[in-house]
Amino acid sequence: MMWKGWKTYEENEASSEDKPHAKGFFDDFRSADDVFGEYAVELEERAGIAFVYAQYGYQDYEGYSHVIFAKDGALFEVNGSHCSCHGLEDQWRPEATTAAAILARPGVSDEAKACVREWAKAVAA
User: Fold this and answer.
1) What are the residue ranges spanned by the domains of the chain?
2) What's the pLDDT tens digit per position in 22-77?
3) Alpha-carbon torsion angle 9, 11, 17, 20, nearest 10
4) Fewer CB within 10 A of the end CB, N or C, for the chain?
């Protein structure tokens, strides 16, 4: 069972909703497909992922990304960056984390923290 308001990758694929940015997606990431495409995530790794927060900023040939997702009841995050020579491909290395760790860490955006708080509240309900 997924948390209210969050959809797995498969549910998002089946959805006919056409929104400029799906819930939890910011800047150059508008959907799960954007994240998976930029990071070149293999199809078999995508199953069961529910994005909590995904952001990708690209300016002056440099890009930075922060992704937080839930899978199998656990929270993970991926950080990526690149110069003009490459993109985010080959940087999909999920690291286990907790909501408390993300909320306590300086430098995490207010948007990311708000999404994590909302996710944690939904999980606790």
Assistant:
1) 9-124
2) 788 888 888 999 899 988 999 999 999 999 999 988 777 788 889 999 999 899 99
3) -20
4) N
Full 3-state SS string of the chain: CCCCCCCEHHHHHHCCCCCCCCCCEEECCCCHHHHHHHHCCCHHHHCCCEEEEEEEEEECCEEEEEEEEEECCEEEEEEEEECCCCCCCCCCCCEEECHHHHHHCCCCCHHHHHHHHHHHHHHHC
Tell me if 3 sits within 8 A of 123, measured CB to CB. yes
- Which among 22, 28, 104 has a CA at the least distance from the CA of 69? 22
Phi, psi of 123 (to 5 degrees): -70, -40
